[in-house]
Amino acid sequence: SCGKIYDYRVSYNQFTVLRKERREQQLRAYENQQKQIQDTEDFIERFRYKATKAVQVQSRIKQLEKIERMEVDEEDNTALKLKFLPASQSGSYPVICEDVEKIYGKHLVFRNVNFTINRGEKVAFVGKNGEGKSTLVKCIMSEIDFGGKLTLGHNVQIGYFAQNQAQMLDESYTVFDTIDRVATGDIRLKIRDILGAFMFGGEASDKKVKVLSGGERTRLAMIKLLLEPVNFLILDEPTNHLDMRSKDVLKDAVRAFSGTVIVVSHDREFLDGLASKVYEFGGGHVKEHLGGIYDFLQTKKIENLNELNAVSPVMEPENKKKLSNADISLSIKQTYEVQKENNKKIKKLEKQVGDCETKIEKLETEIRETEHRMATPKGALDMGLYEQHQQLKHQLEKTVEEWEQLSVELERSAS
Ligand SMILES: Nc1ncnc2c1ncn2[C@@H]1O[C@H](COP(=O)(O)OP(=O)(O)O)[C@@H](O)[C@H]1O
Ligand SMILES: [Mg+2]
């Protein structure tokens, strides 16, 4: 019956859990590191008493001390990939603004705002603080009145993360209760799993909201947002309190979302590869820029969005930095090329150092064997053995020398 359908309107599929994949990646990296540590320790052990290698042994010991030891997530406490599963499609034009304007008392926030956002588009609202990004979002949400005409498309279902969303949580509830109160349908059986997915595993879910950090509150508010099927996400500064890892998780989820998205953000890394259109707020205007966030930064001749705070769009021609587009794209390209070259060089050096070490080991074994044979009555008379021993020693010396040079070079390139 219809009633039943409504009971189950929230699907657990909203959370695609890829815990296993992430753990396996971590395990592989962890094992690699363990092998590297083992190799280094072996090396130190092997050369510890050799005066000629004192410097290299010392440098390896230092290297060991510097290694940041990886950890593998607890099985049940892992950050997961999450997914917004869209509700049924909205109409083709989720938002159409026609001469939208907003005035607070005598203060004009913006006017003549005209744009259309197409279904499935992901756009960024950028601009310095106080230029009206949140205000336009509130207009779209019908939270405040405004001038002009703003049309929402057919069947638009909005998931809204307000700029102060994290502060709007009820402080007297626990993490678990906060979600328990809003979750309906079969997802209720999975609340603990979902909380675990957002790093509220185990006892963390019994914490009161009032003791949570900004990042934890943001994550919790994000979970609430995920509990509703939507086809239009409006995220007003969602990354403000998030750590790198949670930011990545969120970015992946927003990227994978097939609905329409407006993100207000100052974070160019977060917006990169996510937004395909940028709306610039400033001086009472909203200007549309086609292309991604780096195209926008290039057009504005700035390197990051915080610089917008220093440059108002109306004053742009006088105030802008003196870097040309070509300069910026060249310098980005150069940095990238240099990095790439250096990485290549490091890889090559690492291999050469490794090869040298294998060779040293082999030569040492051969020398030892030769010495054993020379110590037998028959071997003692064998001049060929003696010559071979000298040659091996000479080779060893050369290889150690080569190894020393390569190690120094590697250290220099890698630092
Ligand atoms: N309720 C309000 N009453 C009066 N002025 C407001 C109100 N809300 C916001 N403003 C003003 O409107 C401007 C735009 O604010 P806002 O949309 O929050 O900017 P942004 O999100 O781009 O940082 C600011 O100058 C702000 O002081
Ligand atoms: Mg704002």
Automatic annotation (TrEMBL):
A Pfam family the protein falls into: ABC_tran
Every ABC transporter domain range: 95-308
Keyword Nucleus: no
Keywords of this entry: ATP-binding, Coiled coil, Hydrolase, Nucleotide-binding, Repeat
Broad class of enzyme this protein falls into: hydrolase
UniProt cross-references to InterPro entries, sorted A to Z: AAA+_ATPase (IPR003593), ABC_tran_Xtn (IPR032781), ABC_transporter-like_ATP-bd (IPR003439), ABC_transporter-like_CS (IPR017871), ABCF_ATPase (IPR051309), P-loop_NTPase (IPR027417)
PROSITE patterns per record: ABC_TRANSPORTER_1 (PS00211), ABC_TRANSPORTER_2 (PS50893)
Keyword match Nucleotide-binding: yes
EC number: 3.6.3.-
Record CDD domains: ABCF_EF-3
Recorded coiled-coil stretches: 332-413
GO molecular function: ATP binding; ATP hydrolysis activity
Protein name: Putative ABC transporter ATP-binding protein
